[in-house]
């Protein structure tokens, strides 16, 4: 497995993106933004279509561009209209999927490209995705050291954070930017339909057994790393689709922590 260059790239991408998604997922679940991540992921389908139609050498670039555009539209509509968040997200999700599917249908051989976009493909991971994944991990690490307390407070209570001097609006913008980049880059590995699971499930598994925010972050990052690497290995060994294999490992982590949660609580009660 490690002798194949494409598998080396896939494993490295999984080792970088798994912790990134796990760490961000802690705040995604706390802020109830799982639907946001799904909307951004589905928007990248239009980016895939643009890359396929215009023969982009690096599909990640139009994917990121379209996803950032849709994320910006979500923020603008939330601030300038009376629409509720879920209405805005449903509107942009369905619209971006429709536009992407129509564009792909205009090109020959689009069905294979559509399947790879929806379910992920280890062959799709290239040098640019690796560079972006490494940069994202570094940015998330720096953001955690610099603004962890502010982000935690804003996630729990925005009004209290604003009163305490936190620049909530700009903090939210920065988080949305990181989340959009992480989702879009992870689509190449996990697929549009399943990338939300890589954000939500490791964080949910960590919450089953963690007793503090720092523990939850560490466990979510570890579960994301384990799911990414083990999922890639399972995909190679048993010839499974890449994205579903990673999500199944995530679900196994969740099931184990859910089963272990009562025992962990009993141990804490004895201390």
What would you note in describing this structure?
This protein is mostly helical and 271 residues long. It has helices at 5-30, 34-53, 60-80, 85-105, 110-119, 127-156, 158-163, 168-190, 195-209, 213-238, 242-270. The model has no long low-confidence stretch (mean pLDDT 90).
Secondary structure elements and pairings:
Blueprint: H1 5-30, H2 34-53, H3 60-80, H4 85-105, H5 110-119, H6 127-156, H7 158-163, H8 168-190, H9 195-209, H10 213-238, H11 242-270
Helix pairs in contact: 1-6, 1-8, 1-9, 1-10, 2-3, 2-4, 2-8, 2-9, 3-4, 3-8, 5-8, 6-8, 8-9, 9-10, 9-11, 10-11
Give me the secondary-structure category.
Answer: mainly alpha
Low-confidence stretches: none
CATH architecture, by name, is Orthogonal Bundle
Q: State the fourth-level CATH superfamily.
A: ABC transporter involved in vitamin B12 uptake, BtuC
Instruction: Specify the biggest β-sheet.
Output: none
> How many DSSP H or I helices?
11
**How many angstroms does the end-to-end distance come to?**
45 Å
Beta-strand residue percentage: under 5%
Helix content: over 70%
Number of extended strands: 0
- Output the helix-strand order: HHHHHHHHHHH
Domain count: the total is: 1
Integer average pLDDT: 90
CATH class group: Mainly Alpha
Backbone CA Rg: 19 Å
Any idea what the shape is? Answer: globular
CATH topology: ABC transporter involved in vitamin B12 uptake, BtuC
């Amino acid at each position: 497995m490690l002798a194949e260059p494409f598998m080396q790239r896939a494993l490295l991408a999984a080792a970088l993106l798994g912790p990134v998604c796990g760490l961000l997922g802690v705040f995604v679940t706390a802020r109830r933004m799982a639907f946001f991540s799904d909307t951004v992921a589905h928007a990248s389908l239009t980016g895939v279509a643009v890359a396929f139609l215009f023969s982009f050498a690096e599909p990640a670039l139009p994917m990121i561009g379209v996803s950032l555009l849709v994320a910006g539209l979500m923020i603008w509509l939330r601030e300038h209209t009376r629409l509720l968040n879920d209405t805005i997200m449903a509107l942009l999700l369905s619209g971006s999927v429709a536009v992407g599917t129509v564009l792909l249908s205009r090109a020959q051989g689009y069905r294979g490209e559509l399947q790879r976009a929806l379910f992920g493909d280890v062959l799709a991971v290239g040098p640019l995705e690796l560079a972006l994944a490494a940069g994202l991990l570094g940015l998330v690490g720096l953001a955690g050291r610099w603004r962890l307390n502010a982000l935690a407070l804003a996630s729990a209570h925005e009004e209290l954070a604003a009163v305490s001097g936190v620049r909530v609006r700009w903090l939210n913008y920065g988080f949305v930017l990181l989340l959009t980049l992480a989702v879009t880059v992870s689509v190449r590995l996990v697929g549009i339909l399943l990338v939300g699971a890589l954000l939500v499930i490791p964080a949910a598994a960590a919450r089953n057994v963690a007793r503090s925010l720092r523990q939850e972050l560490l466990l979510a990052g570890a579960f994301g790393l384990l799911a990414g690497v083990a999922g890639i290995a399972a995909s190679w060994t048993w010839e499974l689709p890449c994205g579903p294999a990673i999500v199944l490992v995530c679900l196994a982590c969740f099931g184990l922590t859910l089963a272990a949660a009562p025992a962990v609580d009993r141990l804490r009660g004895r201390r």
